[in-house]
Every structure is written in C-alpha cells, then in structure tokens.
Backbone:
C-alpha cells in the first residue's frame, strides 16, 4: 500500500465523527425515498430538508465521505446511495440472529426495513419450549441451547436481543463468548460487555418523552408558546429521528 | 406574572436546544438507574459516564434547566429527576392510543417503559375485525371506526401509529383532524402533517446500520482498525443511544 493510499484509508476510516455516522442512515433513507420517486440528482438544500438537518451540516457530513457534489447540480442520488451504503458497510450482507420471539421479536422478524438495508435474519431463538418449532416470517424458531452452534454455522455477526429484561445479560454473555461483537439491545436493561463489543440500546419510550416535551409546550397556550415546536413540525415531515441526532 | 417570572419562563421555554431535549431522556434513564441503586448524589463526571456523554456537555445541558449542581458534591439525584421530568412534561400523565395491533403494536402495548415514564395507554385500535375485542395487556382492542370518539372521550394527546405502511397516512390524517398534535410513527413511511403537528419516526434499522459501520471497521483487521470503536464500546455499556444524540 502506498502512503497516499494509506492517507486515503486513514481519512475514510478514522476521520468520521460518531455523530456523522449516526446521521448517515437518515440521509440514506431520504435518498432511497428520492430514488423511489425517480429523482437522479439532488441539491444539498433539498437533501438536507428531506433529512431534516441544515445544509451546511449535510455538506460537512458528506465531505467526510469524500463526497462534495457538483456546483449547480448537487449530488448524484445513485452514487451517493452507493457511497453511504459502502461507508456503513451495507454493500455486504450482515447475518443477524434475533433472540427472544415475544411480540417484539416477532415484530422485528417481520420488519421489512432490515432486509432492504442488507440485514439478513438467519435465526430466531427462544428458550420457551412452547414457541420452539413455530414458523414466524418464514423461519422456524430454534432453541437457545443451539445459540453457539447457530452463530458459528451461519456466520451471525450481529445479534438482536429482544428477551425479557431478566434474561438479557445471560444471553448477552453467551453471545459475546461465541465471538459476536455487535449487539442491538431491545431489553429494558443496561448490558455490560467487554471492551471491543458494541452494544446499542433501543429505548422505545425516548421518542415519546421528546414528544411529551413539545406537547407540554403547546398545551401551555400563548405563554407557553414554543418557537422550537414549529421547527420540529417542519422537520417532523421528513424525519423526527433527525432531531435526535442533530446537535 | 411578574417580569422576573417572565424571564424565568422564557429561559425555560425558549432556550433549550433540541439536541439537549433529545439527551434529557437519556440522563433521566441514567438517574433512574442510580435511584434504583440507592444513590443520593452524583457528580457530573459520574452521571456523564453513565449517560455516555462528556461531562462538559452534561453540565451545559443541565444549566439550561437552571440546574448547576454543588461544587464538590454534584447533583442531588432525586431533585434532578424531578427537574428533568418536569421539563419533559413527565410529571403529568400523557394519554396514549396505539393504532395497529400487529406484533409491533402488541409489543408496544405491553412495553413496561411507557407506564413508568408517565405514558398511559388508553386505547388499542385496529381495522381488522378478527382482532377487535381481543384482550392485549389488559386492554380490549377497539375498532378504528371509533377513533375520533376515543380520542375525545379519553383525552388522548399522543397517538402511536403501528399500522402497515399503506394505512399510516390515512390514519394519521384522521388523528390530526381529531385534534391530536403529537404522533409517534413506527410505520415504514414518511407521514405528511400540517404545521403545528409533531411527528417523530422510529426506524428500527437505523441502530443496526450504525452497528454495521463499526462491525465493518472491526472486520477490516489491523488496517481497518477503528479508534472510534473502543469509544462506542465504552459508551455502549451505559447506552448506545447516547452515541446517536451526542454531536
């Protein structure tokens, strides 16, 4: 590898702030929506509006990917989809196992948004004998006893934990011991993992709390008028999520 | 109201950046965990670590609430819980209706995290005759035809849409026409709402995409070593979500 290649790798691999990484999926969602409408190029202002961020931030974020657009034309939608997908690692298939097939696990198993983003659910596991063998979204629920075997055989690299809170840490420990280093946790509990393992926790009530904040302001009447509420409303059309990731 | 009260209201109601609002639920979660362990006071460093942000940002966020802690002592956990809860509007009960009781709607109906945060689910609605009348988490599923009536009678202020994508906009239009101005959207579609209505969209695949980014870096071996992965891992213990809201 030449030193120039090294520098390029360095920029791409070390230079992307975590907050930018968190916004890339939001840009990608907006770009997919543009593709669906047959749009070939998009200005930074249009894309920023669709994603709910300001355009300076968008341009800065995309510059980390080495993507600067063309003056007067903007960004090529298809190429930008490719660049962001490559950056996020979505140009390859990620094999996912879901542990815990209660209502949430079932909802996740049937969630169309995973497959379309390069995530292939290759295993549904549970400890409850009464659900083992059930067919859910075209897959058969397997026993948690086979966890290590399934992870190894199917090349599972990301595990989704959707068990009750009490079971989550034990399951997580087994998953980590089996060599998995990426865990998405839906259980309402904080998981402890060794260095080198990424855990992301989804708290379904956080978005509700943010809505409550604005609802309270609106309920306050003229005295409680919240100038931010309008902004959220405007962004809400594109994606409320962006509000949460924009600083 | 005196002018001093006015200034206080102004600071509290107009001065909180949206990114701070998005982090308040994360601090609240960390504080609740401290309360569960019987901790009475917490330093900004400890609380920041538990929430996965840096302590300067935490102190700045809390200063927007007029909360500055005590030098050498830190923050009083109970009082800070009260302050943040009040700020977020969680000291009052919010009445929530869930529309669409597929797997996701059922999972949300049974989600303990709502009730403990001041959200009371007062209605489960669906259009599918075969589920109307079913008991889910102690509630009876009602027909979507009764939507307007239920919203008015029970004082529903936040609606959670968990319908299939194709039904979501129609449901949203009815909800908005019935006077609801806060919508949490789980359907994989972008909803259009008039000014003054807040929509927040939950995309369950976004967190997976962020995991994939780091997984890709880790898979790259020494050349692909990602210095950020360690940071995420460290924060992941407390809350991966914070990564998404910290700029």
Residues:
């Amino acid at each position: 590898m030449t030193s120039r290649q090294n520098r390029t790798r360095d920029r791409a691999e070390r230079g992307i702030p975590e907050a930018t990484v968190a916004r890339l999926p939001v840009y990608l969602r907006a770009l997919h929506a543009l593709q669906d409408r047959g749009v070939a190029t998009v200005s930074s202002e249009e894309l920023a509006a669709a994603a709910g961020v300001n355009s300076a931030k968008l341009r800065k974020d995309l510059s980390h990917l080495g993507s600067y657009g063309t003056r007067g034309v903007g960004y090529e939608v298809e190429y930008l989809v490719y660049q962001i997908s490559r950056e996020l690692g979505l140009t390859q298939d990620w094999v996912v196992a879901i542990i815990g097939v209660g209502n949430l696990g079932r909802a996740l198993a049937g969630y169309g948004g995973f497959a379309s983003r390069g995530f292939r659910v290759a295993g549904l596991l549970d400890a409850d004998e009464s659900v083992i063998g059930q067919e859910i979204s075209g897959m058969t629920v397997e026993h948690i006893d086979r966890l290590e075997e399934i992870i190894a055989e199917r090349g599972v690299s990301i595990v989704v934990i959707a068990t009750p809170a009490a079971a989550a840490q034990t399951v997580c420990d087994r998953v980590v011991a089996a060599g998995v280093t990426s865990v998405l946790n839906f259980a309402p509990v904080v998981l402890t993992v060794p260095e080198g393992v990424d855990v992301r926790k989804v708290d379904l009530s956080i978005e509700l709390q943010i809505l409550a904040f604005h609802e309270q302001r609106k309920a306050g009447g003229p005295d409680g008028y919240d100038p931010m509420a309008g902004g959220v409303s405007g962004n809400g059309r594109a994606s409320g999520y962006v509000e949460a990731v924009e600083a």
Residues 3-88 of chain A form a domain with the Arc Repressor Mutant, subunit A fold (CATH 1.10.10.10). Chain A has three domains: 3-88, 94-201, 206-245. The beta strands of chain A are 41-42, 75-76, 94-99, 119-126, 135-136, 139-143, 158-161, 182-185, 198-201.
